[in-house]
Amino acid sequence: MSNGAGFGVSLLNSNPEIIGTYFCFSIFGGDISTNPWNEKTVYPNLYLRYGSAEPVFLKSEAEYLTAKYKESNSFIEVKEFTGGHYDSLWKTELSEVLSRVLKRS
């Protein structure tokens, strides 16, 4: 989460072949717009969750990342929950997503 999420987004951008699925809970703050996003690259499946009370610049990064994923036809599931950066809903959301995704595997 948070700073680690920024590293993860940079890694999935630069080496998409080594990550199958990325769970990003909270947003990154890693200036992802400086990464080279390629429309022809299929990026790892991404499950992105963030709070409605996050700072605006962090929410903007989520919107940017969502747009880049859609341009490349990569899978992204985004949900904005009611709450902030340190909200307890992260645990609930993570359990729900992991249960659902792993059940399919």
TrEMBL record:
- Extract the Gene3D superfamilies matched here: alpha/beta hydrolase
Q: Which domain of life is it from?
A: Bacteria
Protein name, UniProt field? Esterase
